[in-house]
Amino acid sequence: MIYPIYTYGQPVLRKVAEPIDASYPDLKNIIENMFETLYHSDGIGLAAPQIGLSIRLIVIDLAPVSESKAELRDFKKVLINAEISERSGEETKDEEGCLSLPGIHETVPRKDKIVIRYCDENFVEHTETYEGYTARVIQHEYDHIDGHMFIDHISPIRRQLIKGKLLAITKGTVRCNYKIKPVK
Questions:
Q1: Is 141 a catalytic residue?
Q2: Cα-only R_g, the chain
Q3: For residue 101, what are the domain limits?
Q4: Which one of 18, 96, 121, 141 is the catalytic residue?
Q5: CATH classification at residue 116
């Protein structure tokens, strides 16, 4: 099942998501449907708040970018109850987009290295270190489960310049090639 993507202005995108346990109802199907939604939307990461669920669940599949970054071909993860414990390294700037902000791409500063603790889909706990592009993607998705969006990291001037696009998203007048759930 393909979920509609909740877009900018939806309150669920600004809530700190709740942790879950293995008894969360229909979790296996939610994860499968999130991956299906991700693929249908041509994304590389999706957090549960983006489908209207305020839970700490993220899916990532970097295969679509492996043509230019071959080392990412097999990076496919489910992150449950993720907590970033460390952000370090250089601050790098790179362009980001988001399924919840269709048509908006901005240069975002992020730390180049993270340490993250999470449970996989079987609730096995992992602590891992990521750098570079992978760290950026994880931080982007992690923002969603903490009630943030990438536009929170851009300058006030840049935010002012995209104000019209943000308004179009909240009105539901933005066009994209996947199902969205705009604010009503």
A1: yes
A2: 16
A3: 5-181
A4: 141
A5: 3.90.45.10
